[in-house]
Amino acid sequence: MRKTYSYNEAVKILGGRDHPVIAAMDKVLGGALLAGSLGLWQVLDLFDAKPDFLRLSNELISKISTKRRGVSRYTRTQQLHAAHAVVVMTAFFEAFDEQQVPVKLTAEDRELVVRYNPWEEPLPLPSVGRSYEENLVVLARRYDLLAVVLCEVVASMACWDDLNDTERGRVRRAVDTAALRALERYQELLGQLAAEFPEIRFWFAIEDGRAVRKALARLEDVLRETTTELRPEVRFAELAGVYGGALRRPLVKSADVPDGVRIPSLAEAYVDPRFQVVTGVDRAAAPSLLAWWDGVPVRDDLYAYLAGLLTSPEALSAPLLVLGDPGSGKSVLTEMLAARLPASDFAVVRVELRCAPAGCTLEQQIEHGLRTLLQEPVSWAEFSRATGGALPLVVLDGFDELLQATGVSQTRYLTTIAEFQQRLEDRGRPAVFVVTSRLSVCAGLELPEGTQVVRLMPFDEAQVRSWLEVWNAGNRPLPPETVLRYPDLASQPLLLLMLALYDAVDSSFQRDHEGLSRSQLYERLLDRFAEREVTKTGTDRTEADLAEDVAYELDRLSVVALAMFNRGVQWIAEHEVTADLGELLGIDSPERLKGTRTPLSAGEMVLGRFFFMQRTEAVREDRTKLRTYEFLHATFGEYLVARFVWQRLLELRREDEARSRRKSTVDDTELYSVLSFAALTSSKPVLDFLREFAERSDRGGLFDLVSRLFAARDESRGSRGGYAPVSLPDSVRDAKYSLNLVVLAVVVRGRCYSDQLGLSVDGWRRLTLFWKSRLPSSEWASVVLWLWVERDAERHFSVCLNVRVREPHAEWLVMSEPYVTLDEVALTLRDMVTPLASRYSLDVTAALIALAATRPDNCLPALALLRAADTSRGVFVSALLERLGQGGDDLSLLNLLGPGYPGKPTELVEAWLRMYDRGERFEDKQPFLELIAAASTTDFSRRPDLIRRARSAAAELGLEWPPSAPAPESRGPVR
Q1: Quick one: 794 exposed, middle or buried, by C-beta within 10 A (0-12, 13-18, 19+)?
Q2: Cβ(374)–Cβ(239) below 8 Å
Q3: Considering only CA atoms, which of 303, 452, 311, 305 is closest in space to residue 390?
């Protein structure tokens, strides 16, 4: 489907070709209307038949109203698209006729009129991703363009010369008024159309009063009103039954539920998520970055957005991309969508990409999903031809899981889908596509034109309360105030369920929550779920044995978290976990044998037991399964990393206390293995958890151990351990280990002084520069971000962890680096640059410094650099104007400034007067005319000196200042 229709195309789609009014009008116009050759003069003549024109528009729209049932969803969408185009043009020409412009075209005018055919121009279509007001702005621009062209036509007529200035002004105002009135008339006509066709309300994101329902039931209500009432075939009725069954499914399996707990169904507990949506994105946009979403409004009308999109032509030309964090409800949303859409209008195919064979084509992925759903092989071509008027909607759930399981780049995946949609539409079998993915995985993903990107938001307080209302109806009540103390957990649906399950056993969460730190809550949550897994075996254990088994289970989970942390990834492959478990905990896998009774690997055994671990699986052509795992919420992994590091440190402390006095320090090979692959500063939650652990520990003894390990950091090592999650040079590992020892020292001590670290200022400077030279830029940035270094008059310097709540802008880090490295020269330069850098970006600051060091006669390169850096152009314009009339190449500077002469009027006048004082007499007076026109509206009462000098200069040039008429338009560069 074309993205937009012209009026001519809309008339044809609505059946106007055979309409008697069209036939009569086309006969008068020599076949121009339907042939697409109607000119503006004929548009004006057409209003002699205004009653017929309006009757045509009304009858065309009424025609689709009588046939709203029994047509395919695609046909209905086409008809509504065309009806909207008719409304757009009708509103404009009704408004134009109301103005009764007192001119009439004659035959002699026709060759003078600027040729423009509004009937063939594509007309704007409302986008569901924009607000009602934003859609009106887009249409207002089109009406303004039509008004401008009409004004040009009238000014080209012979009778224009017979009008005086007052009459001409009246005509111009009438045409301008027509554009404004057209927007009002459009809204009136649109309201009449929306009364007949409810989906049009949702094209404009207009609330319809269904705010009391949830679980996307409002979407079902809306689409039932707009249904085409076609009877679905047996195959599609079967699919609808499969999807409907998901609504009755409990949120978790009964095996994961404590006795006596009632788990609500998906239909009962589902809360419509809040969301953000961006339309018209660039192909190279970056929705994976949180900063990209800053300023995008948060909406709570997901049902209205989906109803508008799925009934709009927009959905047929590009896929909808749905993004969210792990556990945010992306997959559940697709299940709800499939269950709520009427089978008579939509033939839904929900494909779980993690189950699709790796390396197959898009069409093969869809066919694999069909086979899984229908339990029989069905080709996509056969399926899409047999929908019986229902519009195919393909949901591709888990694009991120496809990527992480296969490890194959798929940057053109959405473009491939858009191209496939175009081919389908060319064959008369259009389809809608929805793709879900985790937010952080879609970096570099190419976004085809027309793609809409939706981001699912975490729960807010009202949504948490709504979810708990359903939970409390069948279980021991859990007060919302208790849960809301931990927003990291409460804001994600699956983690909120985890809290509810934890409390359902004995209400310990409610009883103890006020005295629990965050690390203690995570420990209890994980202990409880680990205990449930351990006790499933039915083995008799003492309490001490049970505690030991639970701790061992958490150790294995901690290795999983450390495997991700040390590799710098958010998910981990099963074989990598198995290898790490063998190195760090000595857990070997049973012998792997082929066949149905193949023993589980160590990685499978630890990863498959917890529902807060998400598993992704892809199948290769040889039927080999590729599995990766991740935590539903990153904070679980960060807690477990901190826990593992702290446990190793405590064990080393116990070994140190038991060591022989003949040894100066204990063997730290295991701690070195754990802490030499990633900087602890790269994760603020890890630092926070470590600080909480330190509050409950022997700070003095631990600091003594860490300080001795740090003092021995440069001693040669007999072994670096067998654990090597990634391959790094020894110098890089040494740098990361020494950094992490400093971090542990300040975690334990709070603040460390130079003598406690055994470093002079020069020693600290050399150490930090060593870190900078060996660490990746991202890890070095985290060091600058979270280490706070201060000079001390008596003890040289001190180091502590920064207490800032959120990360500053990246440019701040560059300015802060000298404070961490104690580089005196850099600190001096930093203090000199700070006044500029506090006002402007670093690029602008650097350009201004370069400009300040450049003479006026050689400043063009520096000004060009400033223009590139200054996106707002305000600083660049002021700097350039300051250099006019200072002895440089003024004409080249003016050409660099460009047309329009932006800038403060006083700066403009002063610049030109400096040029005048240096002898410039402006052979081409056009630039000066533009200048004084731009400045003439400014109040110069506070600068009478400028007024006197400007008048004198203008008089000598034979010009008037202030001018009485606007200056002519600039046509090119100054010469």
Answers
A1: exposed
A2: yes
A3: 311
Structural tokens at position 542 = 């003492």
Query: What's the token pair of residue 511?
Result: 């009883």
Core vs surface per residue 196-207: b (16+ CB within 10 A) or e: ebbbbbbbbbee
Three-class secondary structure of residue 625 per DSSP: strand
Give the residue ranges of DSSP H helices in 251-356.
266-269, 302-310, 330-340
Torsion of CA 357, 360, 363, 365, to 10 degrees: 20
Burial environment of residue 713 by CB neighbours within 10 A (0 to 12, 13 to 18, 19 or more): middle
Q: In angstroms, how far is CA 882 from the centroid of its own chain?
A: 41
What is the distance between the alpha carbons of residues 542 and 11, in angstroms, rounded to a whole number? Answer: 83
Whether residue 653 contacts residue 748, with contact meaning beta carbons closer than 8 Å, is answered with: no
- Non-local CB neighbours of 971 within 8 Å, separated by 6+ positions: 926
Give the integer Cα–Cα distance in Å for 363 and 349: 12
Ramachandran angles phi, psi of 779, nearest 5°: -75, -35
Provide the pLDDT for residue 40.
Answer: 38
Who contacts 71 (Cβ-Cβ below 8 Å, separation ≥6)?
A: 79, 228, 389
pLDDT in tens, 33-74: 555 444 433 444 444 444 555 566 666 666 665 555 556 777
Could you give the strand order of the β-sheet that contains 346-352, starting from the edge strand earlier in sequence?
Answer: 275-278, 452-456, 320-324, 432-438, 391-397, 346-352
Number of H helices, E strands in the chain: 44, 12
CA distance linking residue 593 with residue 605, whole number of Å:
16
Bridge partners for 752 per DSSP: 799
Q: How many residues does the chain have?
A: 975
Whether the Cβ atoms of residue 410 and residue 440 lie closer than 8 Å to each other:
no
Residue 473 CB partners (closer than 8 Å, separation 6+): 264
The Cα–Cα gap between 771 and 566 comes to 17
- The one-letter amino acid at 441: V
Asked whether 202 and 311 are in contact (CB, 8 A), the reply is yes
Residue carrying the six token digits 């290795």: 559
Range in 510-519, 804-813, 819-828 the model is least confident about: 804-813
Task: Write the pLDDT tens digit of every residue in 61-72.
Answer: 666 655 555 567
CB 458 within 8 A of CB 276: no
453, β-bridge pairs = 278, 321
39 DSSP 8-state letter: -
378: helix, strand or coil = coil
Q: How many whole angstroms separate alpha carbon 150 and alpha carbon 175? A: 7
Strand partners, 393: 348, 432
Q: What pLDDT score does 90 carry?
A: 80
Alpha helix stretches (DSSP H) within 775-904: 777-786, 810-821, 824-837, 842-852, 860-869, 874-883, 890-897
**Residues 22, 34 contacting (CB under 8 angstroms):** yes
Can you tell me the distance from the alpha carbon of 574 to that of 588, in angstroms, rounded to the nearest whole number? 13
* Torsion angle, alpha carbons of 378, 384, 386, 388, to 10: 140
**Contact assessment for residue 572 and residue 558, using Cβ atoms and an 8 Å cutoff:** no
Q: Of 101, 94, 75, nearest to 155 (Cα)?
A: 101
CA–CA gap between residue 262 and residue 167 (Å, rounded): 80
3-state helix vs strand vs coil in the chain, percent to 5: 60, 5, 35
Question: Which amino acid makes up residue 551?
Answer: A
831-862 tens-digit pLDDT: 667 777 677 777 888 888 888 888 888 888 88
Helix (H) or strand (E) run with residue 613 in it:
strand 613-619
Please tell me the distance from the alpha carbon of residue 890 to that of residue 370, in angstroms, as a whole number. Answer: 71
φ, ψ of residue 454 in degrees (nearest 5): -110, 135
SS3 799: strand
Q: Specify the pLDDT at position 658.
A: 83
pLDDT of residue 263: 87
Q: What is the mean pLDDT of residues 495-507?
A: 84
Backbone φ and ψ for 767, nearest 5 degrees, come out as -65, -45
Identify the CA nearest to 690 among candidates 728, 746, 730.
Answer: 746
d(CA 554, CA 532): 12
